[in-house]
Design a protein that fits this description.
The complex is a heterodimer of chains A (about 500) and B (about 675). Chain A has about 500 residues and is mainly alpha-helical. Chain A has helices at about 5-20, 25-50, 80-100, 110-125, 130-140, 140-150, 155-190, 195-205, 210-225, 235-240, 245-255, 255-270, 275-300, 305-325, 325-360, 370, 375-385, 395-405, 410-435, 450-470, 475-495, and strands spanning about 60-65, 70-75. Chain A has a two-stranded antiparallel ribbon. The chains are: A mainly alpha (about 500), B mainly alpha (about 675).
Chain lengths: ~500, ~675
């Protein structure tokens, strides 16, 4: 059988190198598109042969790498990672089509970084060895840093370095957590092993409760800064809004923080010394993020910053759903990751189109764009409606599952989240009304609607939002299978 | 019955029409109106056929269900309640689509109009035939979306864009309560089953929910020192949704502004169909309401208050459509009151309320379409600029007068003679009297009867100001084309005779809806004592007619004979007029104070500055570290011995640290 997981990691990285070497913009974008399409085909093949009735790892690959340290090249995919790989494999080729005619940024370096990013992110999702996991984890920082630094807005230097240092410090704390797991497990079993599942299974045997909690919190910190949750989100608004549109979308596809919660944190949670405290921390962080993000989005004058805060608010559902600890609340959190990736892509793409067409993102300087950009308006309204949680679109499925099923265990936090729903609707509609409707602002001059490349790319994402909103089973079923397994551990421990 | 197998087509055909019209409408004559018209006509035929089938065989409900995802399903439940709603909605929608061919003929964006009204019709029909609360909620939200899109249909007008947003946000407040109700309900069901939901049962289906009512009543929580049944909480949260959608106080504020949309939209969505979704929700979950202590009392009081409150504002509006908008709010108040009467009359309340809902749909759609006909001809909404329109538009005048008589409730008490509005409003007022007698709560009755007087006053004020007297400006005008007047005539006939023809059979039909449930036992759970109709005093029996006639006479004297000089009353110095004309300062309270001052300027900006602080803290920390790094650089002396010493010191420190750590753990 094909080592398909290695291929979907290596092909983007290989094509990244090829793309860097191309001479012209035309060659670069074709090379990039070919690379991502091959990855897409392989991913779709994997997806359609995926068995969503089992929670076990599939397509596993295993080879010793550094036996003396217990490090192995171990890859695998299950219901937690499959949908996220699918998300990346689908959106990145569309992102290349979206930027097809982009005069400002499209170049060999630009597409090269984009492909490197795809390889690194998929690498995180398929790694079953903490060492490999951490390498890919850190690798994702690099393309994004350059994206912001080279093609960013006026404040790009500050935003880039802030993002880099902030999340890097968090990663180092996470690394300490990994070392804590690794060395303690080594001491217990007498042999080194970096396997994620192995380390998690040994975690419960660590004697000291303080140690267990410290390890748990260190890992948690690493993940939630990436997610991010309030109050560890300060890097995000600057980075998201300074990045070029494609960079913002890549940030959105970087779902590794939430992924860590499902892959690492939840299986460890019942074995911490104070599980109820950890649940409280996660639930409270989730609820606060939802409400705080919504209010901050309401206060923004810049459309892109508004979307950035909206993203923080939506990611709160991931943490909240984890704290819910019912299989369907956890599945809802997983589905939120998938849904958020699609919806935010459309939001940032719409914002990018507006910025290119009008030269501004300040909501009050826009106005009446719907008259000049009818095609964009249709797609953008759909994206905004999905983002505010309209049923029939993916956002609702995720939010409904998280709210309903988290209420069983953490009702207070759900009530806080419910308060945010009206605020969420308010900032979306306010932005639409000011930017798109009303009288056209003549100062904006001549405006052209989106290009056919952009229509194609955004249209496909819009259809996916609609499709998975009406019929979530194709990705939700595998999530449920895996979250049932995760939650069954809690039941055993009586959490 | 083969027809029931086609039930799924009822919402699906208009949904398909939405897609087709949206993409192909530009290439077809009159914006592709033919597609939704044909689709809705078929839906209407299927609905009527199913209704006829149910009339012959009332216990044979149409039920279909398919698995959706996880533990949820999509399904169809057509019982008598759903059947009458389906027939009414598809029929009214069909007429309004036909009317719109004429009304919208000059608008370049016709394809979008017809696509969006088709989407609305699909969502509304889907809402009605849902067999579970979640699907109902989903369609409920889609209905809200279509309403948003259609209010903002002329989105280049700032007023329309703003009204659309206001409508969506205000109803969203209710929707969140509705959603919270579902969340709480689900978690209670979870508790009832001890976390093990039965296999193969969809617990959110209405009939499954109703089975669990006794268990749900038993779950209590203490809120603000009061022991409250969770069923009361759930039903009141559902009712919160209804308050938003059906324009009850205090979430009614969006409805008058919604008149910024095309008049056909006002008729279809904001008069006949969508706004009744809240009433329908309460009727649909009525078994839960009647088993929930205190819920129906809240419903009755709020409905009666809304009926009166809105009617007071109706008498001072000068915009044709706004008068009708407040009238709609007021009439929805009657329907809600009708449901609240379930506290004394049991399941009959659903029949009473639904009967008014259906009759109201006919005469209110008619009123709006007549107003649309006038607006189409003269080009203004302002009644002060009109007068004498009856001479140029005789058909519109006649049909609107019929609708006004139906709304005001003219008929002979104790018989089946009367306009349909009389035959359906009268039982609500009578029920309110019975409610007062048996529970001692007189306010709902007083509100209802005062509102009846005001209703007659404001609607005849509208008729006299618009159609009689001499033209006050040179507005031109002509009678509307037949694609507009034919729907008017059909609706006028229904407004006159529908009530009289169907009264008895309607109540029986709706009563069959709950034959599977022991309503009296449920009422006992809720602590309601059902009473039986006694003989009301003669005055009470005739009171609704007396106030209606009084309203007509006063309107005639003031607005036609002009016996009173209105300028002394209609003045900025009259505090009552000022209060009414400014609509009780609701805009200032809800929008300027609450939304802008508290939510936006207060909380959002507080958040904005706290986020700035946090950001400053993060940046400050890094600056501090960089400066610390700078000073540390001075230790890099370049002298090897210094480094060696540092290394030794470091290792020593590390060893001590490790020792310490080992001892702690």
């Amino acid at each position: 059988m094909l080592p398909i997981l290695s291929l979907i990691v290596l092909i983007p990285i290989l094509f990244s190198a090829v793309t860097f070497l191309t001479k012209t913009k035309e060659q670069a974008r074709i090379s990039a598109l070919v690379g991502t399409l091959i990855t897409l085909v392989l991913t779709l093949y994997m997806y359609f042969s995926f068995d969503s009735t089992t929670a076990a790892m599939q397509f596993e690959e295993m080879a010793n790498w550094i036996p003396s340290l217990g490090i192995s090249y171990h890859l695998g995919v299950d219901g937690v990672s499959m949908p996220l790989i699918l998300l990346n494999a689908i959106v990145i080729p569309l992102l290349i089509i979206y930027t097809w005619d982009d005069v400002r940024s499209a170049s060999n370096r630009f597409y090269g970084l984009m492909l490197a990013m795809q390889g690194a992110v998929i690498g995180v999702f398929v790694s079953l060895d903490f060492f490999v996991f951490y390498i890919f984890w850190e690798l994702t920082l690099v393309p994004l840093f350059f994206m912001v630094n080279i093609w960013g807005g006026s404040n790009k230097k500050h935003a880039g370095i802030k993002f880099f240092i902030y999340t890097h410090v968090a990663s180092l704390v996470m690394l300490l957590g990994i070392f804590g797991l690794y060395f303690n497990a080594w001491a217990l079993t007498g042999s080194p092993n970096m396997g994620i599942d192995h380390l998690i299974s040994q975690f419960q045997f660590f004697e000291s409760g303080i140690l267990r909690d410290a390890i748990f919190l260190a890992l948690l910190f690493g993940f939630i800064v990436k997610l991010p949750v309030v109050p560890f989100h300060s890097w995000l608004p600057d980075a998201y809004s300074e990045a070029p549109t494609a960079g913002s979308v890549l940030f959105i596809l970087l779902k590794i923080g939430g992924y860590g919660l499902f892959r690492v944190m939840l299986p460890m949670l019942p074995f911490t010394a104070t599980p109820s405290l950890m649940i409280t921390i996660m639930g409270a962080l989730g609820a606060v993020s939802i409400l705080y993000g919504a209010f901050l989005a309401l206060a923004q004058k810049d459309l892109k910053r508004m979307i950035a805060y909206s993203s923080i608010s939506h990611m709160g559902y991931v943490t909240l759903g984890c704290a819910g600890l019912v299989s369907l609340s956890v599945s809802g959190a997983m589905f939120q990751q998938f849904s958020h990736g699609l919806i935010m892509s459309i939001m940032f793409m719409s914002c990018g189109v507006i910025q290119t067409a009008t030269g501004t993102r300040i909501i009050n300087n826009l106005g009446g764009l719907a008259q000049k950009m009818p095609k964009l308006t249709v797609i953008m309204v759909l994206g905004f409606m999905a983002s505010l949680g309209l049923p029939g679109l993916t956002g609702f499925i995720a939010e409904f599952l998280v709210l309903t099923f988290s209420f069983i265990n953490v009702p207070i936090y759900v009530i806080i989240a419910l308060l945010a729903i009206v605020i969420t609707a308010a900032y979306h509609l306010w932005a639409l009304q000011r930017a798109m409707f009303g009288t056209f602002n003549e100062k904006l001059g001549e405006i052209v609607d989106i290009s056919s490349y952009q229509t194609l790319s955004m249209g496909i994402i819009a259809l996916l939002i609609l499709y998975f909103g009406l019929y979530p089973s194709p990705v939700l079923d595998m999530m449920i299978t895996n979250s049932e397994k995760i939650v069954s551990l809690m039941a055993v421990m009586g959490v | 019955m083969a027809m029931e197998n086609l039930a799924f087509l009822i919402p699906l055909l208009p949904a398909l029409a939405f897609v087709l019209t949206f993409f192909l409408g530009k290439k077809l004559p009159s914006g592709g109106a033919i597609i939704p018209i044909v689709a809705i006509a078929i839906s209407c035929v299927i609905s009527l056929a199913i209704t006829v089938g149910l009339l012959q065989n009332p216990e044979h409900f149409v039920t279909q269900s398919v698995h959706w995802f996880a533990i949820l399903n999509l399904g169809i439940l057509i019982d008598p309640l759903a059947a009458v709603m389906l027939s009414m909605v598809s029929f009214v929608s069909l007429l309004i689509h036909i009317y719109a061919v004429g009304y919208m003929s000059h608008d370049p964006a016709k394809p979008r109009y017809f696509a969006e009204t088709a989407l609305f019709t699909a969502a509304m029909l889907g809402l009605i035939l849902s067999d579970n609360i979640l699907q109902l909620f989903i369609c409920w939200e889609l209905v809200g979306l279509s309403s948003y899109l259609l209010i903002g249909f002329w989105f280049h007008k700032p007023g329309a864009a703003s009204a659309a947003k206001k409508a969506f946000l205000t109803t969203r407040v209710g929707d969140v309560m509705f959603l919270a109700g579902i969340v709480l309900l689900f978690s209670d069901i979870f508790t009832v089953f001890n976390g093990n939901l039965p296999e193969g049962v969809y617990v959110l289906q209405f009939n499954e929910m109703f089975k669990l009512i006794p268990d749900l009543v038993a779950i209590n929580s203490t809120i603000l020192g009061m022991e409250v049944s969770h069923l009361t909480l759930v039903t009141l949260l559902f009712f919160g949704g209804a308050v938003g959608k059906s324009g009850q106080f205090p979430l009614h504020v969006w409805l008058p502004d919604a008149m910024e949309g095309p008049t056909t939209v006002s008729a279809l969505i904001h008069a006949a169909t969508m706004v009744t979704a809240g009433v329908y929700l309460v009727a649909r979950t009525f078994p839960m309401f009647i088993a929930a202590p205190d819920s129906l009392m809240v419903v009755a009081y709020l409905g009666a208050f809304t009926a009166l409150f809105a009617a007071t504002m109706g008498i001072v509006m000068n915009d044709l459509k706004r008068v009708l908008a407040y009238s709609t709010v007021s009439q929805l108040g009657y329907m809600v009151l009708g449901l609240g009467l379930g506290a004394v009359i049991g399941a009959e309340a659903v029949g009473v309320s639904m009967f008014h809902l259906i009759n109201h749909a006919f005469f209110k759609a008619l009123l709006f379409l007549c107003a649309g006909s006038v607006i189409h001809a003269v080009g203004t909404h302002d009644m002060r600029l009109l007068g004498g329109v009856g001479k140029v538009m005789p058909i519109t005048f006649a049909t609107m007068t019929a609708a006004a008589l139906a709304l005001a409730g003219f008929g002979i008490p104790g018989t089946s003679l009367g306009f349909s509005g009389f035959l359906s409003k009268d039982p609500i007022i009578e029920g309110a009297y019975l409610f007062a007698e048996s529970t001692g709560n007189w306010l709902p009755y007083l509100f209802a009867i005062s509102a009846a007087f005001l209703t007659s006053l404001y609607i005849f004020r509208l008729i006299f100001m618009t159609f009689t007297g001499k033209p006050r400006t040179d507005y031109g005008g002509h009678e509307s084309p037949s694609s507009m007047t034919v729907p008017l005539a059909i609706l006028a006939i229904l407004a006159v005779v529908f009530g009289a023809l169907t009264r008895t059979s309607f109540y029986h039909f709706i009563e069959d809806n709950f034959v599977h449930l022991d309503i009296e036992a449920l009422a006992e759970l809720g602590g309601y004592h059902l009473a039986h109709h006694g003989h009301e005093p003669l005055l009470v029996l005739w009171m609704p007619l007396i106030v209606a006639v009084a309203g007509l006479v006063i309107a005639y004297l003031i607005y036609n004979r002009r016996v009173v000089d209105m300028s002394s009353i209609v003045s900025r110095n009259n505090p009552v007029y000022k209060l009414l004309y400014n609509r009780y300062y609701q805009h200032q309270i809800f929008v300027e104070f609450f939304s802008i001052k508290i939510i936006y300027e207060g909380l959002a900006l507080a958040g904005f500055y706290s986020d700035k602080m946090l950001d400053w803290l993060v940046n400050g920390t890094s600056t501090l570290l960089i400066e610390a790094g700078d000073s540390l650089r001075k230790f890099q002396t370049g002298v090897i011995q210094h480094y060696a010493a540092a290394v030794v010191a470091g290792v020593g420190l590390l060893v001590i640290l490790i020792k310490l750590v080992m001892e702690v753990f």
